[in-house]
Amino acid sequence: MLPSAGVYYFPWEINSSVPEGEALRTFGRLCCYDLARSEAVLIAQHSSAQYQVCVNTKFVEPFQAQLGSRYMVLGEAEHREGEGPVVKARILTCVEGMNVPLLEQAIQEQRKYFSERQEKKLGKSTSWQQL
Predict the structure, then answer these.
(1) What is the pLDDT of residues 87-123, one digit of tens each?
(2) Which ranges in 1-131 belong to alpha helices (H)?
(3) Counts for the chain of helices (H) and strands (E), in that order
């Protein structure tokens, strides 16, 4: 069975408010990988701050970890006590050379489109109920 498409989250948006088990996509540079613990850490810069995303790699191993390269991950959010959320990776792909500003712009455009589409749906359903 294929995983759901997943909602794009910027690395700086991944926090405890992401629902447990929600399918998500995110990206970042691989800064460390521990094969024994099946854990990787992706980092991303936003404004002047650096953000980390912890990734459980148990379901995608073995993979050829290239430290410093950019990766995109599709997985589910998992909350661990005393830690921030962890992404349980279902797909972990090296996307070195990807144009990050263009990806960020595309994610914003997709969100805008989905928001407008949802507003139209709500507008139609309320106008139907008023009849």
Answers:
(1) 999 999 999 999 988 999 999 999 899 888 888 887 7
(2) 100-130
(3) 1, 6
pTM of the full structure: 0.81
Each residue of 9-24: pLDDT tens digit?
989 988 878 888 889 9
Give the C-alpha separation, 128 to 49, whole Å. Answer: 47
Q: Is-cis flag, bond preceding 62, omega within 30?
A: yes
Helix (H) or strand (E) holding 44: strand 39-46
Return the DSSP state at 32: E
Burial category of 124 from C-beta neighbours within 10 Å (exposed 0-12, middle 13-18, buried 19 and up): exposed
Identify the three-state secondary structure at position 112: helix
CA atoms of 60 and 67, how far apart (whole Å) = 16
